[in-house]
Amino acid sequence: MTHNTAPQQPPLYRLEEYRPTAYALPAVRLELDLRPAAARATAELDIVRRPGTRAGAPLVLDGDGLRLVSVALNGKALDHRAFHAAPERLEIINPPAEPFTLTIITELNPAANRALMGLYCSNGIFCTQCEAEGFRRITYFYDRPDVLSVYTVRLEADKAACPVLLANGNRQETGDLPGGRHFAVWHDPHPKPSYLFACVGGALEALEDSFTTQEGKKIELNIYVEPGKAARALYAMDSLKRAFAWDEAQFGRVYDLDIFNIVAVSDFNMGAMENKGLNIFNDKYVLADPQSATDSDYANIERVIAHEYFHNWTGNRITCRDWFQLCLKEGLTVYRDQEFSGDMRSRPVQRLIDTAFLTGTQFAEDAGPLAHPVRPRQYAEINNFYTATVYEKGAELVRMIATLLGEPAFKAAMTLYFDRHDGQACTIEDFIQCFADSSGRDFSQFMLWYEQAGTPLVTAAWAYDEAGGSLTVTLEQSLRPTAECRDKRPMPIPLRFGLVGPDGADMAYKTADKAVQGNVLLLTQAKQSFCFTGLSSRPAPSLLRGFSAPVRLVTGLTAKERLFLAVSDSDPVNRYQALRSLVTEALITAAAGKDSGAPALPPESAAIAAAVAQIAAEERLEPAFRAFCLSLPSEAELAEAQGSNVNPDRIFAARQSFLRLLATKGQTGFPVLRRHYRVKDTFSPIAAQAGRRAFANILAEYSLIAAGSPAIAAALYEKADNMTDRLAGLRLLLHYFPAAAATQQALADFETRFGDNALAMDKWFAAQATAAGPERLETIRQLTRHRLFSYDNPNRVRALIGSFAGQCPTGFHRPDGAAYRFLAAVILQIDRHNPQLAARLLGFMQGWRRLEPQRRGQMQAALQHIAAESALSRDVGDIVSRLLAPAA
Ligand code: BES
Ligand code: ZN
Fold first, then answer.
1. Residue 8: its pLDDT value, please?
2. Residue 1: pLDDT above 80?
3. Which atom number of ligand 1 is nearest to the Cα of residue 386?
4. Which contiguous run of DSSP H or E holds residue 84?
5. CA 204, CA 210: separation in Å to the nearest integer?
6. For a substitution probing ligand 1, which of 130, 265, 270, 389 has the most ligand atoms within 8 Å of its CB?
7. Helix axes 572-592, 623-630, angle to 10 degrees
8. Which of 133, 136, 194, 273 to mutate to test the pocket of ligand 1 (most atoms within 8 A of CB)?
9. 455 close to 396: Cβ distance less than 8 angstroms
């Protein structure tokens, strides 16, 4: 065993090296003979030399671990001297100049495929996952998004084991075969890249429905689940129909096949996949019933169903030229699903949910060693670029364009995009050009948002001139240097704003500044001043309303002004931000203090707690919003805000102190509110009811802290008629009274109730993984031996290991480093069979440089231990080498 091996450098793919393929591949006929341990793929490819390619230029196709059985050209077996075959490549040395067909037969072992890429078996169901580069694990192909082909797929399988056979497009033919086998032929008329191919075979039950398009066409809708679970897909089906209707109404996008199928599987690396006409889902985002799914589960299902459906236009009809353009489909589709959720639920609350995720996850990524532009310029492993930056920041860039243009002009430009690029594989330039052409504006500076990594810091300084009634704000923007670019340029930053008067209403103002359009300030320079006149008194300025740009804002406002905005601003997002900044500052001050004992809260904490209590009692505000304001920043968020020398134990203690302070403040008021807002109607997943539950349950937490006994949590658990309340009770018990008899009872009861429901048991794993304290590690080790736990199932791993590493800072960050070493060992173990999952887990170590010296050294050692492993996957090797690379 060697200790000094630097992680090997895998080859890098570069954006500027993009070249089209030498040949086109207009049509594919694919036959899949499905057998668990010996499946066979017969691919007949129509190959056409592209105009610029010289006759006889070699044809080089991608493969990944393939076993070639035979290859034939125009139906004739190829002499072994005419090609080179390797597991990762097939080269036809001197192909004909005229169009020809290539027939390739490969042999596969789906039952042994634990990477969950390509063709695999999940709980007896054959399914595929091809994005980004999984198709090459099925057959040799141009496995890249700019090669579009029409697919005809013939599936054959045992009829008893696999009565259901599905693939993309429309069903053409089915029939029985000798030996108890049967077949189905599917044809997808829309040319598509290989990453959108999918097929499924298994014993599945369908929830059937239909949707009639605005053109009057009736589309058959099916959601396939394991037998007996169809009723749990009803909410997913309802969401699907609402997504169909929304895309017609909002973007004029109509579905384009006769049938839309969804299949839910229990082993899936991601959330879900948008394969043309055959979406495949992690069953976590399909199955729900009141007893076993929480309100957030319902909201997630609605969102993910919509997201994958929306890809039909933003991703499938218009796809990406190459994987550098990933945000073209993902950022845009996240923007669309966020808008959908806002329309289905509460717009302001949805915006808070989305910005919390952005600042909590994407800002952290942008601040650490994995920072990269929304459109990366190079990658070693594309799977590692399905990131918060590409997705969430990518969505924010689309949102900024919508803010800059206004809704009608934005929608008009989107229509131009759909018309101009339908059927094409596009770049970000193509997309942005549509906004430029449609609006007549110049977007060249805006392109920097796609190119520069890091979160811009915007600082504001205010000067009020009493005599002249004028207010001047000076804004400065800066961006830290990152590996891919040291010298950053200023970007266009739209800041929605209002000037709040003493009564809480926005004041009227005048300005001659062209960079102020309506209620949006457009900052384009490194430093820029804006002047407002006609003010009768000094306003409290509210900047970045609606979180109109993905920036960190230092408002330049005093604590007093922010306290005022927290209770007065008409913009809910900024009310929340004002409050949040105060709470965060107080907690960081306490956590970073030099005192050796318990962290002491600064004196202003009492006024902040009073503001929180005041918001909680404000009748006009939505309960969901009030719940948001009552929840303190997570320990991870606080660590991120502190930035350096982080001691998670002190953050935890500071947070506990503030919880107690607030609990005392609300001692009389909160129980009254809780009784009033408790849901009395029968359960419904609608947003209004979910908001009341969220509010009542966070009030329950404060009441429990004030009472100092587990009774409230135990009652919440026992009397619950839905999972949201039951889980809230269980979590409170575990987090505040881990050793109490009531807690052990609830844990046992939960296991009895839900022992046969893996998704519900994931909550049981996660709740135990997130209770505080260094001894959690032992609990985790024990739970890995639970009969329901498996390192092969990504949902189980995320529920137990992921929750521990991400949401149990006092356990994961034990000063002795034992939990880091545990995670490193788990990553190495998982990397042997599922590199994608292993690489995701490694992300929990991206903040190592922010820790105080002892923990930093421990985590660095754990990372070095991973890096020293000789047989790392490309996925893990790439992440670990970036984590350890010298800071920019
Ligand atoms: N195209 C992705 C799924 C995917 C991601 C496949 C990475 C292969 C590699 C899909 O559209 C997606 O983005 N899914 C998200 C959920 C979505 C609501 C953001 C996911 O799976 O997490
Ligand atoms: Zn997506």
1. 53
2. no
3. 7
4. strand 83-86
5. 19
6. 270
7. 20
8. 273
9. no
| CA of 328 relative to ligand 2 center, distance in Å | 10
Torsion sign (Cα): 348, 349, 350, 353 = positive
Ramachandran bin of 107, using left for φ above 0, alpha for ψ from -120 to 50, beta for the remaining angles? beta
Q: Is 308 a catalytic residue?
A: yes
Taken in order 617, 618, 624, 628, the sign of the CA dihedral is negative
Query: For the segment 834-859, what is each residue's pLDDT rounded down to a tens digit?
Result: 999 999 999 999 999 999 999 999 99
Contact 83, 103 (CB under 8 A): no
Output the CA 583–ligand 1 centroid distance in Å: 34
DSSP 283: G
Tokens linked to 614: 């005041």
Hey, which of 341, 384, 386, 387 would you mutate to test ligand 1's pocket, going by the most ligand atoms within 8 Å of its Cβ?
386
Separation of CA 273 and ligand 1 centre (Å) = 6
Q: Using one digit for the tens of pLDDT, what is the confidence trace for 572-582?
A: 999 999 999 99
Contact 366, 394 (CB under 8 A): no
pLDDT in the model for residue 597? 82
H/E segment holding residue 405: helix 394-405
User: Bridge-partner residues for 151, per DSSP?
Assistant: 28, 188
Residue 482: strand, helix, or coil? strand
Q: Would you state the structure tokens that stand for residue 343, as one six-digit string?
A: 């329309």
Nearest CA to ligand 1 atom 2: 273
pLDDT value for 4: 43
d(CA 839, CA 639) in angstroms, rounded, equals 22
In this prediction, residue 168 has a pLDDT band, given cuts at 50, 70 and 90, of very high
Environment class of 442 (CB within 10 Å of its CB; exposed 0-12, middle 13-18, buried 19+): exposed
Instruction: List all residues 6 or more positions away from 339 whose beta carbon is below 8 Å from its beta carbon.
Output: 250
Dist. CA 113–CA 123, nearest whole Å: 12
Q: Which two tokens stand for residue 688?
A: 């209004």
Q: Residue 5 above 90 pLDDT? A: no
Looking at the CA of residue 330, tell me the nearest atom of ligand 1.
Answer: 13
Q: What is the phi/psi pair of residue 470, to 5°?
A: -125, 150
Cα R_g (the chain), whole angstroms:
28
Q: How far apart are CA 132 and CA 143, in angstroms?
A: 9
Break the chain down into helix, strand, coil percent, rounded to 5: 45, 20, 35
Question: Among candidates 835, 848, 851, which has minimal Cα distance to 884?
Answer: 848
Which atom number of ligand 1 is nearest to the Cα of residue 334? 19
Question: Which residue has the CA at smallest separation from atom 17 of ligand 1?
Answer: 304
Using CA atoms, how far apart are residues 181 and 15, in angstroms rounded to an integer? 46
Catalytic residue among 31, 308, 640, 869: 308
Indicate if the pLDDT at residue 6 is higher than 50: no
Ligand 1 atom closest to the CA of 337, numbered from 1 = 18
Query: Which residues are near ligand 1 (CB < 6 Å)?
Result: 131-132, 270-274, 303-304, 307-308, 311, 330, 334, 337, 386, 391
> What's the average model confidence in pLDDT over 583-592?
97
Please give the DSSP secondary-structure letter assigned to residue 318.
B
**In contact, 862 and 822? CB cutoff 8 Å:** no
pLDDT exceeds 80 at position 595: no
Give pLDDT tens digits for 682-705: 999 999 999 999 999 999 999 999
Bridge partner residues of 320 (DSSP): 426
Do strands 272-273 and 278-282 pair parallel, antiparallel, or not at all (unpaired)?
Answer: antiparallel
Q: How many CA atoms lie within 13 A of 783 on its CB side?
A: 25
Strands in 39-49's sheet, in edge-to-edge order, are: 76-77, 67-73, 100-108, 39-49, 23-33, 149-158, 181-192, 170-177
Neighbouring residues of 420: CB distance < 8 A, sequence distance ≥ 6: 430, 434
Q: What is the DSSP letter of 207?
A: E
Nearest-5° angle of CA 289, CA 291, CA 297?
Answer: 55
Name the nearest CA neighbour of 71 among 59, 80, 58: 80
